[in-house]
Structure formats: C-alpha cells, structure tokens
Write a structure and sequence with these properties.
Elements: H1 2-55, E1 62-63, E2 94-98, H2 109-118, E3 121-125, H3 143-146, H4 148-155, E4 163-168, H5 171-181, E5 186-192, H6 203-206, H7 208-211, H8 214-220, E6 224-225, E7 236-237, H9 241-248, H10 254-263, E8 267-268, H11 269-272, E9 288-293, H12 301-310, E10 315-319, H13 326-329, H14 331-343
Parallel strand pairs: 2-3, 2-4, 4-5, 5-9, 9-10
Antiparallel strand pairs: 1-3, 6-7, 7-8
Helix pairs in contact: 2-14
C-alpha cells in the first residue's frame, strides 16, 4: 500500500513539476515582454526629451512616426518573418493615436509597439498643453487650440491619403472635431471608451453621471485650477492621485500606474466644456466605431452603452476586464480589435 502511494506521489510530483515548468516559462515570457515594453517606453521618453531640447517646444512632438522599429511593408519584419498577408487588405495603415484628458502620447507605448510589430504605422500626438508640449494648459481655451497638433497633421496629409483615428476618453471630442472638418482624410474613427458626443453636446456632458452637472462641477469641485487667479473663472482641473488611480487604473499594472502618476498633467477646462457643432454632411458621413471597456469606473459601461445607443456607430466592440486605460490593462485585446477594424472594407 505504501509503495503504491509512493509511486503515485512520484508520478503526481513529476506531472506537477512539468506543469510548474510550463507555468514558469509562460510567466517568464510575460515578464520579459512587459519588461521589454517598459524599456521601450523609457526609450521613447528619452527620445521625446531630446526632441524637446532640440526644438525648444517650437513643434508638436509625435512618437511612433520616427521609431527605429517601424518597418517597410515590402521588407521582412525584424523577427525574420514576412509581413502578415492581411496587410494587403488594409488600405489605411496609419493609426493616429489621440490621448484623453491628462494623458499624453506616452500612454500609447504598448499599442505603438504592438501595431508596429504587426507592420502598421502608429503615430501618437501630444495635444496642446499635454505630454511634453510646453504650452501652459491654462492657456488652452478652445477645442480647436487643444486639437491643433491633430488638425495640422490632417491639413498636411496628401489629398489621396487617409488615416485611421483612435481617440481615448475626452480625446473622442478631437475625433469628432476632425471628422467635421476633414471627413475626406479619415478612413475610420475609433472611439476608445471615449466622448462620442452628438451635435450640441459638450465632452463634459458624457462624464456628468460620475462628476455631476457642468454647472455644479464649476461651482463646487475641489479639483479646479484657477490659472488666472481666484477672481477669474477656472481654467483647468486635476484629480488627486488616489482618485485618478480609482477612476482610471483600477485594473492596470502597477508600473503603468506609476508611469501615469508622474506623467499626467492638468486638463484644460475650455475644450471639455465646449459644445460641438456637428453636421450630417461632414461628421455624419464618417465611419465610426466604438470600443467599450467593461470594468471602467471613469466612464461606466452603462454610460458607454447610452452613447452608442443615442449616436449609433458602425460597429461596437467590448473589452472585458478593462479599466478606463485599456492601453495599459488590456493592450493585446485592444490591439486585436484595432487590427480587426482596420481590415473592414
């Protein structure tokens, strides 16, 4: 009896050991990939710093468009594999990544890496007064000013070229603004748990369920910033760190939360309080898609569902287990959806 028990224990131990080895290998692989992405983020940050020193803030910085990891589609990828066949079916290969309130181009570092590895071309902007753009956020009073880096890029885009826009959170208002003014240059607009507002709405209205009415927020919020003095209207707002963690990063890795805590900047108030004027002839002809995040505390799933119900897009996708920052919490899932949308004829 005892020998049999010992034999069974050895077999179980062997099986458990094999499983443990497989699990350990998998964990090591995931850790190695995460470490690689964080090293790349650091490299991007250093590159941005060098650019800011070189140009002294005279131009809007973009990351992704000049990365050494970008590949020509006719050439093999860096890992020795050929570009995926599906790339031939994607007409617009440029993804313009627009961050949300308080964020900057830095937040897209995982998405940039994954899109480039697929053979696509990601470009991330710092909107005015965001990221390492040197503009004082208190001086940004309109959506046009806030969106200027995106608008300048679209204005200079060749007439025969179209791009895919991806807007996160309040960056969705920038997408709507761009769709209204440059519908012919936008292949698809992807709203990532974003302010996909209707005509006459303010981006802030989307967050009213969490933050209260705009009027009440302007009167009572302790997060307001008075850049022109207390006797003047507020110019921006900034959540406390603990509140940001709860609202935006409840499922994000600790390293990414730490990166956000030292990188996020005050949010210009004017752009999010501005009512958008959107026409059926321009905005209405755009191809819109919405990605819902189902563990989101900043823009609840119910609010997101209301947005797509009141302003129906062409397609709706969902990311389970994602907080308000899916580029941190669920980068692979986000990447898969972006590539899938890009392939839609």
């Amino acid at each position: 009896m005892g020998n049999r028990f010992i034999c069974m224990s050895k077999k179980d131990t062997k099986d458990n050991g094999s499983r443990s080895k497989r699990i350990n290998r998998s964990q090591r692989k995931l850790l190695a990939e995460e470490e690689f992405l964080h090293k790349q983020a650091l490299s991007m940050a250093l590159n941005q710093h060098q650019l800011s020193q070189r140009f002294e803030g005279s131009m809007s910085r973009r990351i992704g468009s000049t990365s050494s990891r970008r590949h020509n589609f006719s050439d093999p990828l860096s890992n020795g594999k050929q570009a995926p066949d599906f790339l031939e079916n994607i007409k617009s290969k440029k993804f313009i990544l627009i961050h949300g309130e308080g964020f900057g181009a830095w937040c897209w570092y995982k998405t940039i890496a994954l899109l480039e590895e697929t053979g696509l071309i990601p470009i991330a902007f710092d909107l005015t007064g965001s990221g390492i753009d040197l503009t004082d956020s208190n001086a940004v009073t309109t959506l046009a000013e806030y969106s200027k880096p995106l608008i300048d890029y679209l204005q200079n885009l060749p007439e025969d070229e179209k791009v895919i826009l991806v807007g996160h959170s309040s960056g969705g208002a920038c997408l709507s603004y761009a769709l209204e003014h440059f519908p012919q240059k936008i292949s698809k607009a992807i709203f990532l748990c974003a302010t996909m507002v209707s005509d006459g709405q303010r981006p802030f209205d989307v967050f009213a369920e969490e933050l209260g009415s705009a009027e009440r927020f302007m009167e009572e919020s302790k997060f307001l910033i008075y850049g022109n003095g207390k006797e003047q209207p507020p110019t921006g707002f900034m959540f406390e760190k603990e509140q940001m963690k709860g609202l935006y990063f409840n499922q994000s890795p600790t390293k990414d939360v730490a990166l956000a805590m030292v990188s996020m900047r005050p949010i210009p108030l004017g752009p999010v309080m501005e009512k958008l004027s959107l026409s059926a002839e321009n905005y209405g002809t755009g191809r819109r898609f919405f990605i819902q995040t189902l563990d989101d505390r900043a823009l609840s799933p119910d609010v997101q569902e209301k947005l797509v119900r009141e302003n129906p897009p062409e397609g709706v996708y969902k990311i389970k287990g994602s907080d308000h920052s899916p580029f941190f919490s669920k980068p692979q899932s986000l990447h898969k959806i972006l590539v899938e949308i890009a392939q839609i004829p």
